[in-house]
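REQUEST ID: PR-0412
SUBMITTED BY: lab tech R.K.
PRIORITY: routine
TASK: structure prediction, single protein chain
INPUT:
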Amino acid sequence: MLIERIQEKLLQANLDGWLFFDHHRRDPLAYRILSLPPSMEVTRRWYYFIPASGEPRKLVHSIESQSLDTVPGIKQSYSRWPDQQAKLQALLAGAKRIAMQYSPDCAIPYVSMVDGGTLELVRACRVDVVSSADLVQEFEARWTQTQYESHIEAGRRVDQVRSEAFDLVRQKLESGVAVTEYDVQQFILRRFDQLDLITNHGPIVGVNENASNPHYEPSRDRHSHVQRGDLVLIDLWAKLKQADAVYYDVTWTAFCGQPIPDKVLAVFEIVKDARRRACNFVIEQVQSGQPLRGFEVDDAARNHIEEQGFGEYFFHRTGHSIGTEVHGTGANMDNFESHDDRRVIANTCFSVEPGIYLPEFGIRSEVNVYVGDGFAQVTGEQQDELVRI
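STATUS: complete
OUTPUT:
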């Protein structure tokens, strides 16, 4: 069934085939898409070519001749390097335009797995190599209904923990008990475990200037206290403890004390409006049946921040694909770090998280947007005003 689905997409894309290649497990995409076993030995190069029609073809080294036995196709083996080159040419016979895990100018690093020398070797077989990025989306980024439901449930639990974390800060400040960024981070991790959630690292808990570092994480040895008059940013992400669960990833900000400075309020409103503009753009495009590309979503948020005079303080993409890894392999909402012109396809999810990072404080507002069949939605709670502590 997988081969038939791949061939259907190849024909739709006017491609003659998809060439998978690996050496020493450099391309995790290949192993996931083809469901290759973890025990497979890969000390030598292998090639697997799925033509747009006909039977797949394999090329493996003689000392690892069983390495692709779990996938269908005609197998050949090689030993000497001239033999490899000749048989690779035979493997690709009849093909003129093929996909590989390659991205021109490394615009999409998530799929740019093939090394330059291998590209030269393949192109010497007189084929045109194009990016497999859109194909990867089809077979990596699409969610099942079960995965969607796991995301919604993870969101319910993560939103609960996020609210509890701000309540913890409130209780500590009201009782005069010292509390640090690290204390709040560890509280979140304990609650994740109690609610059967897992995360790969984090969460981010940043006060004032620490909130201006998008990848700041407190540690036992490096952290700040949370005090009256502080801005607090919490970025937390997690998924259910079950097979094939997908992540939920959000960022909220709070201010400790009254009154909230006008500059903090103004920056929050700009970031919130940028988030809303991007989300509304996605929803309107999808509902109207118009094509939607990642860079366009970035433009919708970034243009607003630039119009308000804060463009230089928004120095990351607007959003990333979300899947079984918090940074997935679908289209990113990016026209800043790269120009992601991949179409956003149905049954995928991504973050929308504009931010403004000033020297004294930073504000980011992050939600998750799911694109279904003819509709798009924000999947969890949305922050419309600063949390007041």
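NOTES: The first helix runs from residue 2 to 12.
REVIEWED BY: pending
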